[in-house]
C-alpha cells in the first residue's frame, strides 16, 4: 500500500536546470545568507569549485539546516542527543531480532507523522511491513476517531516511499538517481525528503567484500561517499542497518567490520535480553557525544 | 687576494650555528599541542597520525585546531594559542562543527572562568573565522582544492588577516580503494591514473605550498586494512615491540607519501588495553 515507485514522480522540474548555468558562479558560501529553501538550490552542487567555509559559516549552516529527527523511541533519542542528525549517517548494528528493522520503521513513521518530511525506505531483505506501520500509528494515536486515524495513516503511507533493492549495482544506480533528482528538485512528492533508510546495507555489501578483489572495497567506499554526500548536501538524515555474524571464538561481530566502521558518523549497537521486554542501545561511536553510554527502549508489539 | 680566493671558495656559506638560528627563526618550533607535546614539531613538518577507528585521531586534529586558532592573549587573559589560521580538508566527510564549537567554548570558559556574553561571542567569532573548511568527495576535488588554497587564503585573508600555519587532512587514505579500482578498470582512456600518481600530484602540491609558506601538516590515516587478524601469539609480540606494530597494519599509502612524511604517530584505541591514548604517541 505504501509501495510507490519513489523516483518516477512527475514533479521533477527540468526548468531549474536553466537556472543552474546562470547561477553556477555563485559560491556555496551564500548558504548562510540565503533563505533555507535556496540552500538546496541546484547551483550549490553544480559549481566545480568547492565551497570554502569558515568556522562561523559552517556553524550557522549546521544550526539552520541540520536538525535532529526524532526516532519516536525515547531511549534512543535521549542517547543520540535528540535523534538522527540531518547531514549525518547513523548506523544501527545488532544481532538478528534485536529490533533494527523496528527502529527503522518506527523512525520512518514518527518522522512522517510529525511532518518533518518524506522518507525513502530502501528495503534489501523484504522486511518493510506496512502492517507494522499501521500498528505504530494506532499506538501513537489511541484516542483518535477511526476516520481521523484512517486519514493520518493515509498521509503517513503516502509519504513513505519504499523501494526494494537486491544488489549493490541497483543500490548505486538508485543513489546516483536520488542525488541527481535532489539536485534539481527540492521536494519529493509534495514534501522534502528528510530521511533515507537502508535496511540492511550490510546484506548488499558483505557478499562482495573479501578475497583479493578490490572492486568490492571500492563499491563499499563509493556507497559510503555517496550516502554522506546526499546527507550533507541536501540535509538528509541517513539511517542504515548492519547485521551481525559469528566471528572467531563464537562472538558476534558486525558483518561490515573495521573498514566500514570509519564511514558512518554514529554507530549504535542494539541488543535484546531474552525475557526482558525492552532492548538496549549502546553508542559505539558518535561525533559529538561520548561513546559507551547505554539506554533502554521499548518497542511495543 | 689571489691566495684568499680559494680559501673563500672552500669556506662554508654559513656555520652550523648560523643555520640553526636561521631555520629556527623562519620555521620555529611551535608551542606543543597537548596530545603531541612529546613530539617536537616545527612548521614545515608533515605529520601522519595513524590508528584504527576509535583511537581519537580526529580529536587530536581538533585539539591542534583549537590551539592554533586561539589568540595568545586576549583582553588581558592568557590563552596560549597561536592566533593562526587552520585549513581543514575533510575527505572522510565526518567533521562535526558542533564538536569544534563545543571544544572551543570549553577551552575559553576554562581559561577565563567568567566572561561576559558579548566578549565571549567576539572572541568565539574571531577564533571560528580563523578556521577554514573544505569538503572533498573525490581525489580530483582534493587536488583541485589544494591548488586553490593560496587563492582562497588570500581571499579570506583580507577579512581576517593572519597567516595559515596549520593544514589538516582527515583522512589521507579516504579514496584509496576508489582510486585503485578506477585504475584497474582503466576509467581514463589511454592513461591510467593510479593512486600513486594521485598521491604524487598531492605530495607535489603540498610541497609547493610548503615552499611558499611554512605550514604544519597533520594528516590522519585510518589503519584498518588488515590482511589477517593476528593470532594470540602475534598479538602479544605486537604489544611488546613497538616497531612491529606497523607490520600488523598494512601500509597502503604509496612510497611517495611515506617518504614525504616527516613524523609518524601511531594511536591506539583504548580497547587494546595498552596505555592511555595520550601516552601512546610513539614517534617513529
Automatic annotation (TrEMBL), chain A:
Residues 65-244 form the RecA family profile domain. Keywords: ATP-binding, DNA damage, DNA recombination, DNA repair, DNA-binding, Nucleotide-binding, Nucleus. The keyword ATP-binding applies. It is found in: Nucleus. Pfam families: Rad51. Signal peptide: none annotated. GO terms for cellular component: microtubule organizing center; Rad51B-Rad51C-Rad51D-XRCC2 complex; replication fork. One of its GO terms (molecular function) is ATP binding. It comes from the Eukaryota. InterPro entries: HRR_RAD51_Paralog, P-loop_NTPase, Rad51_C, Rad51D_C, RecA_ATP-bd. The keyword Metal-binding does not apply. GO terms for biological process: DNA strand invasion; double-strand break repair via homologous recombination; reciprocal meiotic recombination; telomere maintenance. Involved in the homologous recombination repair (HRR) pathway of double-stranded DNA breaks arising during DNA replication or induced by DNA-damaging agents. Belongs to the RecA family. RAD51 subfamily. This is DNA repair protein RAD51 4 isoform X1.
TrEMBL record, chain B:
One of its GO terms (molecular function) is DNA binding. SUPFAM superfamilies: P-loop containing nucleoside triphosphate hydrolases. GO terms for biological process: double-strand break repair via homologous recombination. It comes from the Eukaryota. InterPro entries: P-loop_NTPase, RecA_ATP-bd, XRCC2. Residues 22-224 form the RecA family profile domain. GO terms for cellular component: Rad51B-Rad51C-Rad51D-XRCC2 complex; replication fork. Gene3D superfamilies: P-loop containing nucleotide triphosphate hydrolases (3.40.50.300). This is DNA repair protein XRCC2 isoform X3. It comes from Carex littledalei.
Amino acid at each position: 500500500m505504501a509501495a510507490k515507485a519513489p523516483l518516477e514522480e512527475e514533479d521533477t522540474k527540468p526548468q531549474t536546470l536553466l537556472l543552474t548555468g546562470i547561477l553556477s558562479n555563485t559560491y556555496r558560501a551564500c548558504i548562510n545568507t540565503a533563505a533555507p529553501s535556496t540552500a538546496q538550490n541546484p547551483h550549490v552542487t553544480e559549481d566545480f569549485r568547492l565551497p570554502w567555509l569558515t568556522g562561523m559559516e559552517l556553524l550557522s549552516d549546521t544550526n539552520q539546516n541540520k536538525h535532529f529527527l526524532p526516532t519516536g523511541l525515547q531511549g534512543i533519542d535521549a542517547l543520540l542527543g535528540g535523534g538522527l542528525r540531518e547531514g549525518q549517517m547513523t548506523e544501527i548494528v545488532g544481532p538478528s531480532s534485536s529490533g533494527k528493522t523496528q527502529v527503522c520503521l518506527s523512525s520512518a513513521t514518527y518522522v512522517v507523522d510529525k511532518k518533518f518530511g518524506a522518507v525513502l525506505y530502501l528495503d534489501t531483505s523484504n522486511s518493510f511491513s506496512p502492517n507494522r506501520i499501521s500498528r505504530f500509528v494506532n499506538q501513537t494515536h489511541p484516542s483518535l476517531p477511526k476516520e481521523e486515524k484512517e486519514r493520518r495513516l493515509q498521509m503517513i503511507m503516502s509519504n513513505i516511499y519504499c523501494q526494494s533493492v537486491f544488489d549493490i549495482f541497483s543500490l548505486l544506480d538508485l543513489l546516483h538517481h536520488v542525488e541527481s533528482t535532489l539536485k534539481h528538485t527540492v521536494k519529493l512528492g509534495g514534501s522534502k525528503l528528510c530521511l533515507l533508510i537502508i535496511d540492511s546495507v550490510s546484506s548488499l555489501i558483505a557478499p562482495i567484500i573479501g578475497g583479493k578483489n578490490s572492486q568490492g572495497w571500492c563499491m563499499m567506499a563509493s556507497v559510503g561517499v555517496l550516502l554522506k554526500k546526499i546527507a550533507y548536501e541536501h540535509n538528509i538524515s541517513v539511517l542504515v542497518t548492519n547485521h551481525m555474524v559469528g566471528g572467531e571464538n563464537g562472538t558476534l561481530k558486525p558483518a561490515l567490520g573495521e573498514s566500514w566502521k570509519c564511514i558512518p558518523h554514529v554507530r549504535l549497537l542494539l541488543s535484546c535480553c531474552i525475557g526482558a521486554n525492552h532492548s538496549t542501545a549502546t553508542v559505539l561511536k558518535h561525533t559529538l557525544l561520548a561513546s559507551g553510554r547505554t539506554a533502554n527502549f521499548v518497542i511495543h508489539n | 687576494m689571489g691566495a684568499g680566493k680559494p680559501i673563500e671558495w672552500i669556506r662554508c656559506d654559513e656555520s652550523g650555528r648560523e643555520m640553526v638560528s636561521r631555520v629556527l627563526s623562519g620555521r620555529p618550533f611551535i608551542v606543543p599541542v597537548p596530545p603531541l607535546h612529546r613530539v617536537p614539531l616545527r612548521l614545515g613538518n608533515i605529520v601522519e597520525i595513524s590508528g584504527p577507528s576509535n583511537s581519537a585521531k580526529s580529536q587530536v586534529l581538533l585539539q591542534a585546531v583549537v590551539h592554533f586558532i586561539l589568540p595568545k592573549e586576549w583582553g588581558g587573559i592568557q590563552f596560549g594559542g597561536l592566533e593562526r589560521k587552520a585549513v581543514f580538508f575533510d575527505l572522510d566527510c565526518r567533521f562535526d562543527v558542533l564538536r569544534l564549537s563545543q571544544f572551543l567554548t570549553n577551552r575559553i570558559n576554562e581559561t577565563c572562568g567568567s566572561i561576559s556574553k558579548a566578549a565571549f561571542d567576539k572572541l568565539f567569532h574571531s577564533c571560528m573565522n580563523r578556521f577554514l573548511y573544505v569538503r572533498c568527495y573525490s581525489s580530483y576535488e582534493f587536488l583541485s582544492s589544494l591548488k586553490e588554497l593560496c587563492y582562497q587564503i588570500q581571499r579570506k585573508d583580507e577579512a581576517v588577516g593572519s597567516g595559515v600555519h596549520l593544514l589538516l587532512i582527515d583522512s589521507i587514505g579516504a579514496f584509496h580503494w576508489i582510486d585503485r579500482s578506477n585504475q584497474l578498470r582503466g576509467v581514463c582512456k589511454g592513461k591510467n591514473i593510479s593512486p600513486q600518481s594521485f598521491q604524487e600530484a598531492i605530495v607535489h602540491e603540498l610541497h609547493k605550498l610548503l615552499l611558499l609558506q611554512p605550514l604544519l601538516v597533520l594528516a590522519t590515516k585510518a589503519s584498518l586494512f588488515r590482511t589477517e587478524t593476528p593470532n594470540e601469539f602475534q598479538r602479544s609480540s605486537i604489544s611488546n615491540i613497538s616497531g612491529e606494530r606497523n607490520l600488523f597494519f598494512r601500509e597502503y599509502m604509496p612510497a611517495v607519501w611515506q617518504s614525504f612524511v616527516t613524523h609518524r604517530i601511531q594511536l591506539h584505541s583504548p580497547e587494546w588495553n595498552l596505555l592511555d591514548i595520550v601516552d601512546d604517541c610513539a614517534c617513529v
